[in-house]
Amino acid sequence: VAFRRAMKAGFGSTDVVDDEEFARRLHDPPDRVLAAFDRGAIVATYLSFATELTVPGGVAVDAGAVTAVTCRATHRRRGILTEMISRDLAVSKERGEMADVLIAAEYPIYGRFGYGPAVWYSDWELDVSVAEFTTPGSGTVEFVDNETFRKEAPAIFEQVRRARPGMIGRTALEWDMRSDLRRPPESKPWPGFRVLVRDDAGTAQGWASYVHKENWSDFRPRATAEVADMCSTSPAVEARLWRFLAELDHVVTVTAGDRPVDELLPLLLVDGRHARRTAGSDFIWLRPLDVAGLLAARRYDVAGHVVVDVVDRLGVADGRFALDASPDGATCVPTTESAEVTLPVATLGAASLGGLRLKRMHDAGWCDEHVAGAVDRADALLATRVPPWCNTWF
């Protein structure tokens, strides 16, 4: 309870109700919870948990995920974060986790510890008063209660996350909370609606959770449907969900956050400008822990060979590695060959899922080329046809 109170305060909230059972479940297992103490009071918090991270090619690798990182304003600049993150990274590597991921609240902080921005998101707004769809999509839409959503949604999510790099797993507790079957003790019930799309066989293939924001102007309804979460197993099901949301009574605007950078919505419309990208930024930051394992696990669309020197000031993942890759498989091993490219571990993290192109980062000074054409070869290898996406906050 004290840890949760300190963590919430670190994020600027004092709206906390003490609930020991909930706090223990939220911070389990306890050996991945770190805190800094000063005269018995918690002054900094840090929490990580085990998950699976999907890498290009649909392969899921073991990873650690970091969250709840806070420090009291009175105790900054004392090396507390360095101490906690160094301990956690060392233990994560010992556990066999190939990478570490987090959501960076402040951009400049985590590059110093070897994390690079690897997954990006986009927010969208649809003007349904003028939007026309080019396709009706497929499937039958039905409203469902929280229990039905909890039963059906995980299978849809698992199918999607296995196909999209950048996705991480969701625990049973996470699903309980997303279904509003459990909630933080200070929280109120979720005020929204949930719909499923089923195919002709009755199997759920997609969902949308949204909140209806009522608004009236000159006695005319001008409501907004705010999509909290949407996931589908095929483009046709996604089209059906978007069209359903656009046809809700009283709704003139649909908004959706945390969408992929290759969002399908504007391409589903007669006039794609009726869907507007309202925001976009970095989301998941990735830090390699096992360079050879991470690069050998993912898939590659082209064949090639490159030798990279990875520089890690924390000494967790540095070394020289030879990557031999092709669509049939890949190997990555330590080598004494001369390095063709030298890159900080954070640069490799940013490039490893294909979210940022290595060539662009080289142009910006994020890595060094020693052999002409080596960056181009490495860039072609690490590029992906499907950009990474993650729709799970943690």
Report on this model:
It is a single chain. With 394 residues, the protein is an alpha+beta fold. It has helices at residues 2-10, 20-26, 80-94, 107-110, 146-161, 172-178, 235-246, 291-297, 345-351, 358-363, 374-382; strands spanning 33-38, 41-55, 59-71, 99-103, 116-127, 140-143, 193-198, 204-213, 216-217, 220-221, 223-232, 251-259, 275-288, 304-311, 319-326, 329-334, 341-344, 368-369. It has an eleven-stranded mixed sheet with strand order 1-2-3-4-13-5-12-11-8-7-6, sandwiched between helices. It has a five-stranded mixed sheet with strand order 16-15-14-17-18. A hairpin with a 2-residue loop joins strand 9 (216-217) and strand 10. The chain is globular, with a radius of gyration of 23 Å. The two termini are 19 Å apart. The model has no long low-confidence stretch (mean pLDDT 96).
Instruction: Count the DSSP helices.
Output: 11
List how many beta strands DSSP finds. 18
Strand content: 25-35%
Fraction of residues in H or I helices: 25-40%
Low-pLDDT sequence parts = none
Taking all residues together, what is the mean pLDDT?
96
The general outline is globular
Largest sheet: 11 strands, mixed
- Category from helices, strands and their pairing: alpha+beta
End-to-end Cα distance: 19 Å
Radius of gyration: 23 Å
Along the chain, the helix and strand elements come as HHEEEHEHEEHHEEEEEHEEHEEEEHHEH
